[in-house]
Design brief:
- The complex is a heterodimer of chains A (165) and B (416).
- The radius of gyration of chain A is 16 Å and the shape is globular.
- Chain A is of the alpha/beta class and 165 residues long.
- Chain A has a single domain, classed as Aconitase, domain 4.
- In chain B, 31% of the residues lie in helices and 17% in strands.
- Chain B is built from 14 helices and 17 strands.
- In chain B, the strands form five sheets. Chain B has a five-stranded parallel beta sheet. In chain B, strands 3-2-4-5 form a four-stranded parallel beta sheet.
- In chain B, helix 6 packs parallel to helix 8.
- The longest helix of chain B has 17 residues.
- Chain B is globular.
- Classes of the chains: A alpha/beta (165), B alpha/beta (416).
- Chains A and B meet through helix 4, helix 5, helix 7 and strand 8 of A and strand 1, helix 2, helix 3, helix 5 and strand 6 of B.
- Strand 8 of chain A pairs antiparallel with strand 1 of chain B, so a sheet runs across the interface.
């Protein structure tokens, strides 16, 4: 799988510009992913490619159109040093796995990457990098295939339940 | 161990002691959707098997990003939401009232101690009302519409202690831009920023809204000002509430404590393309601009417009540039109209538009072409935020925007 490498502070305006937010179809949104920021992305991205970024990936607007555009482009995994909070949840909710890798900066653009989620690492051109486990309470949503599928299976929620730090 | 404001809110709403780091399925007291994120949220609600929303009186709907509808698709999205509101018995403010966050505040739809979510990142603004308020995506919102609750990881808080009196023509926007520079664009990720100190206590609701609004620009989950007499005075006539004491305990545990003294604070300008790149205005004075925008949920209130008008005085805006002024809501528009501000702005050469997000949306109108420069009182200067990715957006206060609009270049408002 090919790595699409991005820098720090990639905001959701860059992932999908505001003028396309009237659309809700992932495939339509995917045609405009990173438009004006990295025009080759929409044309050349392939199913299963992996985005690798620095700090604060997905900052800014809460627009879920951003992770949706990436699902439409075939992205299933994003690896970053850190993620912005709303994007992280949105990504999980729409079925993208956001993985934290403290050494993401070392992974070069265009590299061939293999992700072993169970093993907790990625292999890039012969080098192995550890990835952080996903927080427990998000795992159920990921296992269900996203929040819609998770929610479809439950009739009501019990408020004020949860786990302690 | 004492509790922060945010810990007190979650503990109160959950009926048991909740600490930062805990994960709770918390009840939601208000849920806001608008024309951009609403259609997806409603579709997700249906896909989750939703039939009736958890409580139509707790759902807030309005349109502000592309109003009046500027494309057939936008019109279809709004029609879809209108139908949903009618079917569900949700009060829809439609295109009449203005920008979502301002409307939530002025209609009293956020109150101290409440947990509010909005499908918009600047939902954190309602922390000015003493609510825990945070922006969420459309799928999370679909879940909230169905269940009236959402999983939260209770955030740690950064205490921002603000002291001193603002110098002339320096205010809340300059403060929050300087805090953004200090904390950084991701320095508060997953945390809340609790604003306090004598300066915050003396600050009016409009300034508190500006500060809380921009908490997200540091990655924060929420910004909050402990509710006090200013908060309750603002709520009078908007919402009947019983005052609650949510003051943080003296021994509350914070992720960090930051001290800010505004006594010598200079007007701040955030330079392209990140909000935390704020510098004192004199470092960029003389930068030529093509468009000045005064408005947005951050700085489109009557007090912001009055601040701009005070700097403008009887002068004219530069004919070389476009000046776009958009009150944040119908109420704010009427206040500005009745006090003569609108006439003064129009006479001075500005375009005054009806309440909406305007150029800050980056998709409706007032867009920038390649190479153009905008100076804006809004909240984000990301590359492409107001149109072309080859345009430059600078952020500032209404006073700095007005001074700069008079000369067509970034200008220190203290020298006008």
């Amino acid at each position: 799988m090919r790595v699409w490498k991005f820098s720090d502070n990639i905001d959701t305006d860059a992932i999908i510009p505001g003028r396309y937010l009237i659309h809700n179809d992932p495939c339509v949104l995917a045609r405009h992913a990173f438009e004006g920021t990295r025009d080759e992305f929409a044309a050349k991205v392939r199913e299963g490619d992996v985005i690798v970024a620095g700090r604060n990936f997905g900052c800014g607007s809460s627009r879920e159109h951003a992770p949706l555009a990436l699902t439409g482009a075939g992205i299933r995994i994003i690896i970053a040093r850190t993620f912005a909070r709303i994007f992280y949840r949105n990504a999980v909710n729409v079925g993208i796995l956001p993985l934290v890798c403290h050494q993401a900066d070392e992974i070069p653009d265009g590299a061939d990457i293999t992700v072993d989620i169970g093993g907790g690492y990625v292999d890039v051109d012969g080098t192995r990098y550890p990835i952080e486990p996903v927080p427990g309470f998000m795992q159920d949503i990921i296992n269900a295939g996203g929040l819609v599928a998770y929610a479809r299976g439950i009739e009501e929620v019990k408020t004020c339940t949860g786990s302690q730090a | 161990m004492g509790a922060t404001v945010v810990e007190k809110i979650f503990s109160s709403r959950c009926g048991r002691a909740v600490r930062a780091g805990d994960v709770v399925m918390a009840p939601v007291d208000g849920a806001m959707i608008h024309d951009i994120t609403g259609p997806l949220a409603i579709r997700n609600f249906f896909q989750m098997g939703g039939t009736r929303v958890f409580d139509p009186h707790k759902v807030i709907m309005l349109f502000d990003h592309q109003v009046p509808a500027d494309s057939i698709t936008a019109a279809e999205n709004q029609a879809f939401m209108r139908t949903f509101a009618g079917d569900q018995g949700i009060h829809n403010y439609d295109i009449r009232e203005g920008i979502c966050h301002q409307v939530v505040m002025e209609k009293g739809r956020a109150a101290p101690g409440e947990i509010i979510v909005g499908a918009d990142s600047h939902t954190c603004m309602y922390g000015a009302a003493g609510a825990f308020a945070t922006g969420i995506g459309s799928t999370d919102m679909g879940f909230v519409l169905k269940f009236g609750a959402l999983y939260f990881r209770v955030p740690e808080s950064i205490r921002a202690e603000v002291t001193g009196r603002f110098p002339r023509r320096v205010g809340a926007k300059d403060l929050i831009l300087s805090i953004a520079r200090d904390i950084g664009a991701d320095g508060a990720t997953y945390q809340a920023i609790e604003f306090g100190g004598e300066t915050m206590e003396d600050m009016g609701m409009e300034g508190r809204m500006t500060c809380c609004n921009m908490a997200i620009e540091m990655g924060a989950k929420a910004g909050i000002v402990p509710p006090d007499r200013v908060t309750y005075r603002y709520l009078e006539g908007r919402r009947a509430v019983t005052p609650v004491d949510l003051s943080p305990d003296p021994d509350a545990r914070y992720a960090d404590r930051r001290l800010y003294d505004v006594t010598d604070l200079a007007p701040q300008v955030a330079v392209p393309h990140n909000v935390d790149l704020a510098v004192p205005v004199d470092e960029v004075a003389g930068t030529r601009v093509d468009q000045v925008f005064i408005g947005s949920c951050t700085n489109g209130r009557f007090e912001d417009l009055a601040e701009a008008a005070e700097v403008l005085s009887d002068n004219r805006f530069s004919d070389r540039i476009r000046v776009i002024i958009i009150p944040a809501s119908r109420d704010e528009y009427l206040k500005a109209l009745r006090s003569g501000l609108i006439e003064r702005f129009v006479s001075a050469g500005a375009l005054v538009e009806a309440p909406c997000c305007g150029p800050c949306m980056g998709g409706a109108f007032g867009l920038l072409g390649p190479g153009e420069v905008s100076l804006s009182t809004s909240n984000r200067n990301f590359r492409g935020r107001q149109g072309s990715t080859e345009a430059m957006v600078y952020l500032c206060s209404p006073a700095t925007a007005a001074a700069s609009a008079m000369y067509g270049e970034i200008t220190d408002p203290r020298e006008v």
